[in-house]
Amino acid sequence: xxxxxxxxxxxxxxxxxxxxxxxxxxxxxxxxxxxxxxxxxxxxxxxxxxxxxxxxxxxxxxxxxxxxxxxxxxxxxxxxxxxxxxxxxxxxxxxxxxxxxxxxxxxxxxxxxxxxxxxxxxxxxxxxxxxxxxxxxxxxxxxxxxxxxxxxxxxxxxxxxxxxxxxxxxxxxxxxxxxxxxxxxxxxxxxxxxxxxxxxxxxxxxxxxxxxxxxxxxxxxxxxxxxxxxxxxxxxxxxxxxxxxxxxxxxxxxxxxxxxxxxxxxxxxxxxxxxxxxxxxxxxxxxxxxxxxxxxxxxxxxxxxxxxxxxxxxxxxxxxxxxxxxxxxxxxxxxxxxxxxxxxxxxxxxxxxxxxxxxxxxxxxxxxxxxxxxxxxxxxxxxxxxxxxxxxxxxxxxxxxxxxxxxxxxxxxxxxxxxxxxxxxxxxxxxxxxxxxxxxxxxxxxxxxxxxxxxxxxxxxxxxxxxxxxxxxxxxxxxxxxxxxxxxxxxxxxxxxxxxxxxxxxxxxxxxxxxxxxxxxxxxxxxxxxxxxxxxxxxxxxxxxxxxxxxxxxxxxxxxxxxxxxxxxxxxxxxxxxxxxxxxxxxxxxxxxxxxxxxxxxxxxxxxxxxxxxxxxxxxxxxxxxxxxxxxxxxxxxxxxxxxxxxxxxxxxxxxxxxxxxxxxxxxxxxxxxxxxxxxxxxxxxxxxxxxxxxxxxxxxxxxxxxxxxxxxxxxxxxxxxxxxxxxxxxxxxxxxxxxxxxxxxxxxxxxxxxxxxxxxxxxxxxxxxxxxxxxxxxxxxxxxxxxxxxxxxxxxxxxxxxxxxxxxxxxxxxxxxxxxxxxxxxxxxxxxxxxxxxxxxxxxxxxxxxxxxxxxxxxxxxxxxxxxxxxxxxxxxxxxxxxxxxxxxxxxxxxxxxxxxxxxxxxxxxxxxxxxxxxxxxxxxxxxxxxxxxxxxxxxxxxxxxxxxxxxxxxxxxxxxxxxxxxxxxxxxxxxxxxxxxxxxxxxxxxxxxxxxxxxxxxxxxxxxxxxxxxxxxxxxxxxxxxxxxxxxxxxxxxxxxxxxxxxxxxxxxxxxxxxxxxxxxxxxxxxxxxxxxxxxxxxxxxxxxxxxxxxxxxxxxxxxxxxxxxxxxxxxxxxxxxxxxxxxxxxxxxxxxxxxxxxxxxxxxxxxxxxxxxxxxxxxxxxxxxxxxxxxxxxxxxxxxxxxxxxxxxxxxxxxxxxxxxxxxxxxxxxxxxxxxxxxxxxxxxxxxxxxxxxxxxxxxxxxxxxxxxxxxxxxxxxxxxxxxxxxxxxxxxxxxxxxxxxxxxxxxxxxxxxxxxxxxxxxxxxxxxxxxxxxxxxxxxxxxxxxxxxxxxxxxxxxxxxxxxxxxxxxxxxxxxxxxxxxxxxxxxxxxxxxxxxxxxxxxxxxxxxxxxxxxxxxxxxxxxxxxxxxxxxxxxxxxxxxxxxxxxxxxxxxxxxxxxxxxxxxxxxxxxxxxxxxxxxxxxxxxxxxxxxxxxxxxxxxxxxxxxxxxx
Length: 1500
Fold this sequence. Notes:
With 1500 residues, the chain is an alpha/beta fold. Strands 20-21-22-19-23-24-25 form a seven-stranded mixed sheet, sandwiched between helices. Strands 3-4-1-8-9-10 form a six-stranded mixed sheet, with helices on both faces. Strand 9, helix 7 and strand 10 form a beta-alpha-beta unit. The longest helix is centred in the N-terminal third of the chain and has 38 residues, at 314-351.
């Protein structure tokens, strides 16, 4: 019911009359008091509906119209408003005025003739059909406006608004107005209706008038005053609502707001609406070409637009729009202007870049000059109308050309002046740069590697500082330094080649000794090219080591001239000249000449070979191509799993020539099969000419059985595999290193490395074939080697053109890529000549290993290094081999103006004279020489052919009986690389031993008791028997180099049997290799001397015994002995005095010749560094040097000991003496001293090898070097397989340390060091500390804590020991162990578990004394402790809980600890700890193998 009542309540309606001063102009002045504006603003508040002009002067017709309706009041209409109490009401507004006739200017006559004061106070108004008033324009045009009548034609007035104009009215006195208002108020008061005084036009109000109006109101009781402004719409609604509240007493009293406060609120409202409207305009209008009509339509529905138009009107809204459009246009023009001005300097640079052309031109003249340029219209556009910013060109966006009239503006003139200044400055800076460069080039103080800080004072002057910024001259200096450093390095490399004789005389290997490096430094030290790199010692040492590597391991890749190596050029020339028969059968090879072929045997039983072959094929392309280093190779696989003696399982077939073999095993049985198969394969080819299977590259790979996790079995197989690999001289890959074994998954990276190794071996086999026997001459009559120097300034194409273009030149039958066949008439017959075209470095390796009938050696007359290499090569050539020297000159010999060329020509001629060789010179301006040039040389070769072949046969036979008696064989036989098939290693592996006594079957093979391998494999009788049998057969095999002809006979004396052991139990003789290869008490390298030159020259010069095929006797050989040989005293010291000579007679006349010597002995210009050869022992491992010296001291004093040891004679050849000594054993084994660093001998480090406390500070507790290394490894190497296990290159590691020692800010990434190099250098840092990182006294406590059986108590005890570490050691140890823990988390990728890392690191961190037995037996404890630290790193160092142990495997510490009690038959007892070494651990299954492992790990 209540709701119904509320709904029934009608909205209250109030009728309000607005009154005030009215009348003629005389009475009210020239304008009214603002009653109409007040009513207009209240009834129609919108700005567009508000009108300021409301005239009261009307015509008679307008006055009589329906709007005025002959009345002196206007009906403004009905208004609905919500008052402050939110109650809605309606108000009818009436304005009482007085209309003036426009003719008489007197009030119109109406029905009511009362004066205005009486009429204004009327409370009842009536006017039939009176229309609502809008504005003056409505009068007479009522039909164009809304027609709304006054309700019922009458109104009852409820209240009055009394208006007072407080503005300074024109022609009106305010006092008169106030008097009028007072009279009007008195009349209104009589009606008893509420009255509110309204002050109008307050926006123009006079303060006195307002004050007087308030005074008037105060004089009346309860008369309220509201200050308003209809123009500003201030307090208009307040005036009407105040009156309504007075009419309706039930409403609350209205708060009267002062005018200025209300004006402020109104202004804020308008400002807010304006901001919103401007935001709306900026969002909608983006183009200055928009128009108001379209935009206003878009904004019509937006509240921002509506609010602003309501408050300010459409015209103001349009005005703001136009202002925005103007602003957009201005911004657009400015953007275009900036673009034009930005392009103007570019136009200047393109059109007038020459300073000389415009240096003195003004902008106006330059403008005319621009118009003459051909590309003027490309940069500028000439407009018909100007200026450009007042034309439509501003909207031509596509045309980016500059309006030419822009040149008339001030900014353009400024840019032209700036262009001039820029050109002048650039000219000056260019002059300064040239002067700076000239200073650098002419200054004697600027040397390679000199830092800028040292060079600055010598070259900088004031002008340089003024005109060049630091970055500019440092960049110039850096480029200049790079140029002179590169040039110095090139010159130093040339210097090294000029001293080739020195490097070859020193017989350097992969790890040159300190003393040999010192000799190189001494010899080269005075050379200016050596001193030029004084500031770059690390780079200089690296160049020397790189050159040593080239000398020791000469290949196309290590050649200093790579990739322009002569061998590569020759291969290309021959391959482009010939297509070999084997290639014709290979369609794929013809279609793609870049594809090489790799033939690979895979040996393994029980399906291993087939499975690996399938996995490798899966990595190949569809046509069996394999990609190595971006090059395609055709891969042919031959898996073998049966008896290799059967043809179906043969390594070699008529169509398959193997280049390498992968040997797979996963058990002792499969390993036995591999050993037997290799033995059978080698045995089957011993009697054949193509016996290259003896040197076939092998790789032994351990493959895990599926599901086999037995650590004991795995370690046992690894040990056995390593032993077999050492005997087979092959590479061994275990699962941890190769990543191949786990689940028989192949590792593509490792297979690629294996194939790369096979490619290298294949190339070397092509360059240097195996030793040729006389039977090889069935196909060719002569073998000639032509040697060229890499890097000579002459083209190999021109030199070899006459050879390759000869009609008789054919492809070599042996398939070598560097040899050809020639048929030349020599004498009365044609001879087939095999001509090998090689570089000098490839020729070094065949001087003594291959049958060569003669050498043609080329050298450049203007290059010293070329002749130096020739001299080094000839030093080791036997003097019976003919030599043809060929000097290459720039022109005719008689016109040479180069002193060096003339000197080298003269020296070449003198060398040829002294060695009885041939000499000729060829001008390279006419390189097309003819082969007839060498005819005298070929004739000389034919004459000496027989003696050369006999000498070669003797040397090979002598080498077979002498070199195999050595424990270690040098990779050189009088040259840096005797057999290029041998792998580089720290210790050269012994080749198979052969015996010449085939008819003597009493020589026993190596027994199991004397075999180290047999001792280590005692648990497997079958394998031990196989190995013993295999070694026995290897040791007694003879490759018969002269099988088709009667064997060579030698006289054997007691001296040759000095290796017989009188003390042997059976009284039988045994071979030297049997006793020296595997001694009964274990192998110790310190017991043996190193190989020497005597290895390849087994007899001294008294033993000139060799055989010469006699020309008159076909198929027979005459054996010769030197009849001038001195007789021995018969003391049993190894003389030949008791030689049986019956075998030498044969009923033939004995020919007497002398044994050949080397050319070095015949020519004074050869071997100038020969003295250094006798100054060092052959081979260069420093470890054995001091030992040998000690033995020599003992030898000089006489040996005391076993009577079987024969004392040396003082006049005996020292090299022979060393060989004999190397076959004896000392009762006391001297301890080898660690070899000092190669490069560190020349510098003292202030960082490495110093106490830890000197390289750390409280602020930096971690050494900077360790921090840099670990950051680099964690950033790039966590996924590297075998990290910390695989050793880095030692020279690179030392170079890294040297560079860091010079610059602690060294950036490892910039230097491009390998991860393994950085890892090795980091380990080396700890190895070189004076004291180990884990102090010795702490090691004792750690071992004691480790004895605790309870795991948790053990870990807590170890943690307590850690707390006792010195602070520096603890921080570094924490940092390293945390890093190793992080590495172990990536073990699935890098294969380095915590156990593997502990094995690699514990010797480095704890560094025990291996000379004590206690240290050797405690090794497992050390390793386990470090492994626990790595595994439980969060617990030990980061206060985390103890983590659960990993899965128990026999190789893990936890599992091992749990299995130890079951592995030993007696209770485990602890031994007392030594003061400097931790106590031993219980015996484990791996204990017998630990010493050798420790030695390997300790060297890392």
